[in-house]
Structures are given as C-alpha cells and as structure tokens.
Amino acid sequence: MKCVALNARFLRADMLEGYGNYVNEIFQRLVQQHPEIQFIYIFDHDYDSRFITGSNVLPLVVTPPARHALSFKYWYDVKVPLALRKYSPDVLIQPYGFASLTSAIPQLLVVHDLAFKHYPSFIPKHHLYYYRYFTPRFLKKVQGIVTVSAFSRADIIQHYPFAADKITVVHNAAKPGFQPLGFEERQAIKAQYAQGCEYFLFVGGIHPRKNLLHLLKAFTIFKKWQKSNMKLLVAGRLAWQYKDLLEKLDSYKHREDVVLLDYINDTALQAIMASAYALVYPSFFEGFGVPIIEAMQSGTPVICSNTGSLPEIAGNAALQVSPDNVEELAQQMQILYKDEIKRSQLIQAGRIQAATFSWDASAADFWRAIQLVTKK
To answer: CB count, 10 Å around CB of 221?
Structure first.
C-alpha cells in the first residue's frame, strides 16, 4: 500500500464536531505513524493548514461544495473520482456515511449510526430520502465498513444483514485536554459562564434528537423541588429544527438560568466540562456519545439516556434514564444535587470507564480496517 485518500469534508477549523473530530484524531496519528504512505486529503472547501500534519499529506480541493442531495451525487460520483484518477490511491476513506457508487477505488465507509431509521422525523426531508435510498447501495458497494460501537454494528446488521462480514468497530475517545481542574480554576469558569453558580451542562448540536425540550422540562421540575440557583449551560451550535425550542425558550420560566453558549472551541469546552456539576445528556439516540467520555475523563459525573449506544459507552459509571421520562430525569438531577457520596462514586467510576477508550487504540484499529480493505 502506497497511497490512502481521505474524504476530509468535515475537517473545518471553525466547526470541528463529532465526525470531523473522529477523522482528525485518527488520521493525525496515522499520518505520523506511516510516513511511507502518501495521504491525499480531499476537501470541498478551502482548508486550514493545521490539518496538514505531515509532509506526506497532499491537500486536494475539489469543488463545488457538497451541501445537498444533488451536489452529494455530483461530488462523490463525478468530481472526486475524476480528481483522484492521476493518483491511483489504494483505498478511499469515506468517513461520513456516504460513498461513491462510480469509483473503482476500494472504499472504507464509516457509518456512525442509523439515526434516520429510528427517528426519521428528526432528519431534514431531502437528507432523509438520500439516506433511505442510498445507504443500502453504499453498504453493498464498499469493501469495508467501520462503525463506532457494538450497538451500531448490531443495528447495521439488523437492518442490512448482507453487510455483516464487512464491519469493524472503532471507538471514539476523549482528547487529553479533558481533565479535572483545581478549585480556583473551576470557580473562575463558573464566574465567567454561570454568574458564579453551579451548573448542569449539555453538550451537542441543538436539534430534536438531542432532546433539549425534555431537559428544559426536567430542569423546571428540579428547580421547583430544590429552589436552587443552579444554572443550565447548553454548549452547541444551532443545527436544524431548532426554532421551536428557541421560541419556547423565550417564554421559559427559568430563562435567566439557561445559558446558550453556541459552538465553542476545545479549550473553552474542556474548562467548562471540568467545572460542571454534572453533564446531562438525554439524547434519544446516539451511535456513541462522545461528551459522556469527555465528562468522565474530566471528573464530571454523568446523567445520560438508557437508549442506543449510551448504556454500552457509559457502563455502570453514569445515572441512566429513559429519554421520554421527564420526571425521572429531574429525579436523577436531584440525586446528584443531594447525594455527595453518590456523586463522588460516579466521578471515580467515570474515570475508570473513560480510560477504556483511547485514540491511540482507535487509530491502530482503523489502520487494521484499512489493511483489510486493501488486501481484498
């Protein structure tokens, strides 16, 4: 193997979220570990030079940008194969669930989850059609598939049994910067973001699947029970179908206690995570749930949903609730607020659980998946 091509569309310095972070963490390691390999990074936008982490990385900008269904087909099936023709890569990595149906290059496809199968109403309609129609075709076309949890692997096999022999699990992990802070540092962060108060934290894009409306309802019940000055911080960009939540938030009883932070960079997020009273992550469905591991590694206790991959990722180190049960969620928030012994136990268990996930191990697993594809 001499050349690996990577679809790098989600490597964006101003918006490096789940998909992009997964690719960045794994490939910056592979680039350093395999200087003998030529890596071609294919962008559909101007790239940030910070992603070009070795002399063996060749950035390639292929336009126009792929932003909707028709442009997806054109970019993946026409523009990228044409751009790669003169390089003849041994494998093309497709990390975002879409593949080329026309390229003759062996492809390794990353499918983080099948959320569109479980919560179709939460997906923009034009994307939903694309997922439904093309996902089985992508899975048949590619030579290998990577997914991020045992749950997602089983889910893919349940819906697409023919893909079973192609799938490798390669986990997410947390960056080293997610770590506990000292008392004075935590107090400074609370003063900066939460008027000096303790706060619950939610991390993730603002869209229906993340279940923020139920979190707001649970926060109201918690406030009624405890009469505390606890805040709720929401760290995440406005993704889609968010207008209903913003409208409800305008008239929300405890609006002054809710802080919308929008997208924030890693440095700020790491400090905010380590200073939180707890992470509350009531998502309806996740293929992995990275913020859970980030919180545990930071010494912050976790409340999360008992659905999707979250029980697998959280293990016994988090309080788990049904995402549909608002009162149960409020009760778990109250437990952490009132029971310091339980909170300390969760912090200790969380550090142990987080240590089972490593980007170095994930990079090694991903490399093995690449090798399997190139040997077929």
So the answer is: 16
Q: What are phi and psi of 191, to 5 degrees?
A: -65, -35
Structure tokens at 182: 């000292």
Looking at residue 376, what is its pLDDT?
A: 72
**Per-domain residue ranges for the chain?**
3-173+358-375, 183-354
Would the pTM count as exceeding 0.70?
A: yes
CA 300 – CA 142 distance, rounded (Å): 40
Whether 3-173+358-375 and 183-354 share one fold: the answer is yes
* pLDDT of res. 240: 56
3-state DSSP assignment of residue 7: strand
Token pair listed for 129:
């059609």
CATH, range 3-173+358-375:
3.40.50.2000
Cα–Cα distance for residue pair 68/50, rounded to 1 Å: 27
Strand 3-7, strand 302-305: pairing: unpaired
Q: Which CATH class is domain 183-354?
A: alpha beta
Summarize pLDDT for 16-37 with one digit per residue, the tens.
778 899 999 999 999 999 999 9
Per the CB < 8 A criterion, the answer to whether 212 and 206 are in contact is yes
